[in-house]
Amino acid sequence: MVNRKELRPESSPQAAYGAHLRRMREERSWTQEDLAEPMGCSSQHISALETGRKSPTLPFSRRADQVFGLTGTKESFEREWRDMRHGVLLEGFPEYVGYEGRAVEIRLFEIGIIPGLLQTPEYARVLANSAVKRGAITPEQADERVAFLASRQAALERTQPPMIFVVMDESCIRRPVGGPKVMDAQLERLAEFTDSPNALLQIAPYAIGERRTFDLPVNLLTLADRSMVGHTESQAQGHFDRQMTSVVPMLTAYHQLQAASLSQAESVAAIQEARKGTS
What CA–CA distance (Å, rounded) separates 123 from 113? Predict the structure, then answer.
């Protein structure tokens, strides 16, 4: 039997691309030889890409989208290649987003800025343009970042949408972004989010002090089979985790944070109070 190399998609964007390629191939019960023929390359090349020994190219990514029927979708190989090339996403995040689109429960915690899935286009654009001004990304990368966020948000608008739990540090609603008009519309969007039957939003007020269980943004997903994955990030690094031994303690900490936070009704009141400062 041929040894099958285990992949570590969380180790790098290139490894995540390879894991994505293998997953798409195996979902169709194709061998590497089966995929190589329509791709116009060798099975050795497919193997090298899947194991991260070679870097993908734009032509390969576009051809893969055609072969797998992914052109223009959230799982597009071209989109993932562009994210890798331009550094739009932190390590581990491309694979995380692949799971996010089919999660049954999503739990988010954010500090300082509104979570991406709840950002208005104007708020997201201000953040992207700010990164351009700092020289962190190019204008083209800013466009890709905003477009990528929009595709993530759209992926959640399905027949059976996921339950979304959001805990935001109070700093998220207090920190002005983009001026009064942008911020007021963003806060209004948060209030509207709470009207959804599959949404729960809570503010973690400054007053909880040391009871805030996370000091970095955290994303936790529950999948249809009740397995869980997580993604944590700092300013420059991301970490994707599928190990239940480390994800379950994060879920416990998330529940503890929810218990210490404001109720949804109290959180909406805090959001409406913050809106007064934008008018």
Answer: 10
DSSP state, residue 5: P
Mean pLDDT of 14-22: 88
Whole-model pTM above 0.85?
no
User: Which band of pLDDT confidence, cut at 50, 70 and 90, is reported for residue 56?
Assistant: confident
For range 53-78, the mean pLDDT: 90
| Residue 135 half-sphere exposure toward CB, CA atoms < 13 A | 0
CATH value of 10-86 in 3.40.50.1000, 3.90.1150.10, 3.40.1010.20, 1.10.260.40 = 1.10.260.40
Q: Does domain 97-118+156-278 have CATH number 3.30.870.10?
A: yes
Q: Which residue has the tokens 């503010």?
A: 203
Domain ranges of the chain: 10-86, 97-118+156-278
> What does the pLDDT read at residue 90?
58
